[in-house]
Amino acid sequence: SMERAALERAVQRFLDARGALPADRTRIIGFDSHRLPGETTADTNLFIFREQADSFTRELIGDINDFYVRLHQLEAWRRALESYTDLAEQLNIFAEFVEPLFVYTLTSPYDLKNRFIYCGVKLILLAEAFQSPSSPPRIRPLDRTIEFKTLQKLCGSSTVREGFLHAASEVNSDVFTKATGLFRRRRVHRLPQNLHVGILAIFETEETPTGLRHTLVAEHPLRLEELIPMLDGEHRKLSTAFEQYWQLILDLDATLAARS
Length: 260
Description:
Structural class: mainly alpha
Helix content: 55-70%
Order of helices and strands: HHHHHHHEEH
Shape: flat
Largest sheet: 2 strands, antiparallel
């Protein structure tokens, strides 16, 4: 553990680095600009849809903005770490302040992609149920079974839905998961590679015509300077997915409003 004076110095270096780091506030999604028209309506079905859409939208905005803020903090900590020449001190600071942020940003794209899928499916089905009360939607999945394939089945009927489906699919893509060494999956189910420093040594076993062969594989750590640009790209994909999600909401709302 670090002494109080060392902690205070580390925090001050972080604050200095964050103060010198330019922040693009245009990348923060606004709440006020993403509200459905007409806050009140006499139509019960339209009211329910708007309340649910508003709740989902607020949650998504908050989560995506939080991801950007944490990513901004992570870059500031990366710069602060560079100012230390003593490796032991640097490792203490990383463990105390940086590792939780790094893990959060590495796993958030997966989490947010699945929230988009869940919210999209729920709102599409809710709108379809209200559009044809006598003919319930043919697809009525349980919450726990909602996945990307569920969204695919619902998004082939319009360009707006297809746009949202495509944007959501771009988040946490195979390219990103491979670049991060399947970190999220391995952290949950296996043993993840180290962060920042340290080699993970694993013997891989394979069957050959002459018997089993054991090979030592040394996995290098995931480095902040290599992954922060890629995480920044994931935030841009999340922003695009949100705008496509919002177009979907406007389209569903307009269809329901036209019937009320």
